[in-house]
User: What shape does this take?
Amino acid sequence: MSRRPPRPRHAVGSGRPAGRPSSRLLGVTAGVVLAAAALTGCAPPERAGDGGSGTLRIAAATDPGESLNPYASNQSPTQQLRSALLYEGLTRLDPTGKVEWRLATDMTPNADFSEWTIKLRPGVEFTDGSGFTSADVVASIKYLRDPAHAVQGLAFIEKIDPDAVAAVDELTVRVGLSEPFAPFKDIWANVLLPMTKAGSVPEQPIGTGPFAVKSFSAGRQSTLERFDGHWGDRPKLGTIDIVEFPSQQAQANALLSNQVDIASGATPTIAKSLAGRDDIELLDSKGDFTLRIGFNTTVAPFDDVRVRQALRLLVDREQVVSNAFGGYARVANDHEGGTPQCGTPEITQRAQDIEQAKKLLAEAGQSGLSFAVTTDGLLPGMQELAQVFSENAAKAGVKVDVNIVTVPELLSKWGQWPAFIDFNPIPYLPTVIGGLLPDRVGNATHWDNADFVGLADQLFVAPEPQQCSIMNRMHVIEHQQGATIVPAFVNVLMPYRSNVSGLVPDVNGRPLSFLTNVTVGG
Assistant: This one.
């Protein structure tokens, strides 16, 4: 979730939840594991059949400040979930992480990638029945690009020149950039960059998605109805109820008591306890979703790379996988997730080395270091990761307290915490743009590495065959000099009742974005 408008610097770009900027912010992002939410004094939703099409009831995370505006700052995973069903972008990521066309059917650059021509899909309607045209795309891009609106996705399209966005004809848009940018198509797959009807945002946003809003009560419940005029495959569901509960355990209890069909957030412990009980099954989405420990490089001693490397060496990654994530994860290597087509970068796996960590801390004058790691525990595994890290650090005489705060408190001081736990559900390119470059709202560590920035500049103008090589070199810099501990890639776990069919795992942790073929049995 974005805490403040990003300050311009680098690139157009495209995670959970997408979210605490970059991640929380981008989240995006991203695909984000949805944690908990509040429903107080409300009866459980009715199991209406809706003409035989069925109603899917989803338990999600509370967000009293949520809105229907898909461009709002500080979007929670719950708001991003709802937006993914109501609105669409020019492109999107499919469940395997591949970019596919949605409202656009083609994007063609000029010779130096400084201007792009977008062809739009014909025959698309908004949920109010009006036609989707180039005028709506121009209006959406200009709204997104205006810093006064402080939209969460602004960092990704900063290279767009708002005065050079124009309709060529009813289904063609020309977009001029302030600097060349090659991965233009990928950027629009970001959940934070949907298209809306011209003039409808922010008061009454209208989208082209497969569902439309029937009712909405912030922090409590949303009811969405199928839009039969949708251009794509018609959803089999007639209605979706998104009901908010105060904790992951409350979601689990609602699932067991048949108040909901899906608990969108579950810790590994809860997921294991639910699986196989009372007709409950588990959707396990494996990908590059990360929970990571960030260190603010403007605060001593985290401005010293020796201290950051020492803290990374304290971590027993296998213990993190088993204890914090119940085995539903795989060991990571202190860099963000890669891009599926690029493969794993060839970097020696970092392992726990207490003696080397002590040596580095002594060299930095930080033997006996003591500090707190702050988390709001928003997502499953956050508090558990902090606790495992604290136990690991104690072996080197480093005292790490776990500071648990509320979500509003964490967000109110975003970018100020000396050490904190964050998440990232989005692919590498938008992660770079939104969270690893200097002066990004998602860069709460304030990490600023000239070599990394230089490679990012190369990446933004490189043709596709050269991008993997550049990204892997960037991973090396993250591994050697970065400001986060990335101990594991975490599976997104979603318990659901066995009468729900058609769910698909998603590598970006957003399985509830793909409900076209989902049905609910009797």
